[in-house]
Amino acid sequence: MGINSAKQHFLLISACALVLEGLIAGVAVAQPDRYGAIATSASGGWGYGYDYLTRQEAEQKALRECGKSDCQVQVWFKNACGAVAKDQLGNLGWGWAVTREQAEASALSGCGTGACRIQVWACTTR
């Protein structure tokens, strides 16, 4: 094999390696959906669960974390964030969105009074 032939062979192998690397890197691995939920109680309890594979698992975790007999799931979300806002009179607002900030804004808007504050928020990792 001559020098030119050796160079061509080397370039061909290098090009094939680059193409193969690009193909491997371009293959997206499907990520499973992630669920979250937030539960609150009128008696002051709250809890959340996030990054569960099902809505039911996330809601069960939120209710367990809330720990009161009157806990209720206020919001659930998939591959997103959720938030709950509350004022001193017990008015609630909740929301979900792609970002924490948007979820909090939705919760504050839904609460309806200027005295509402974010009580709890959570986001999934996806």
TrEMBL record:
The source's superkingdom equals Bacteria
> What InterPro entries does the record point to?
DUF4189, HD
Molecular function terms from GO: DNA binding
Q: Where are the transmembrane segments?
A: none
| Span of domain DUF4189 | 35-123
Q: What is this protein called?
A: DUF4189 domain-containing protein
Organism of origin is Planktothrix tepida PCC 9214
